[in-house]
């Protein structure tokens, strides 16, 4: 790629990112998007909050998420609250024979952009899927004098949890809306 083409691509990318930051408050839900330089999770729902205190919004967001899920991590500097996967009792019967295990994976991000505070909630529905097919090279092929395997590949065993593969099949928009509405209600002084 020539230098001129790289410069044009860089300017185009910067213009696209700058243009997206102006439309932050217009879309209430949807697919992946850009919030300043923040990537909105796929299928996430966003809501502007009626508060000026970022720490209060984050603390209340954590309390609301704890009502629905078990908190795995909460980083106030990043504004990110991640929850442990929650198993679902019944999986959709989308397969001819039997069904698969399902779970919900939730995240809440609280961000401050342009003097406003936004909450972005994503509750993804996932089902257990087939493991990814991996092709491995044969250690005795060529380059026999060069180590072709890492010590972890030679000595470490994997657990069934490490071999699990999860596929996102939808998002729970009603739960996302419920979480965001609960957060907005608490921050506005309601119950």
Tell me what you see in this structure.
The chain is of the alpha+beta class and 191 residues long. The protein has a domain of 110 residues: Alpha-D-Glucose-1,6-Bisphosphate, Chain A, domain 4 (2-Layer Sandwich). Helix content is 30%, strand content 29%. It contains 5 helices and 9 strands. Helix 2 packs across helix 5. It is extended. 20% of the residues are buried.
CATH level-1 class of the domain at 44-91 and 98-130 and 163-191: Alpha Beta
| CATH architecture call of the domain at 44-91 and 98-130 and 163-191 | 2-Layer Sandwich
Q: Which stretches of 5+ consecutive residues score pLDDT under 50? A: 20-40
- The share of residues in extended strands comes to 25-35%
Overall pLDDT: 75
Number of helices: 5
Order of helices and strands: HEEEHEEEEEHHEH
Q: Strand pairing plus helix content: what structural class?
A: alpha+beta
Estimate percent helicity: 25-40%
Q: Describe the biggest sheet?
A: 7 strands, antiparallel
Distance between the termini: 59 Å
Number of strands: 9
- Oligomeric state of the chains present here: single chain
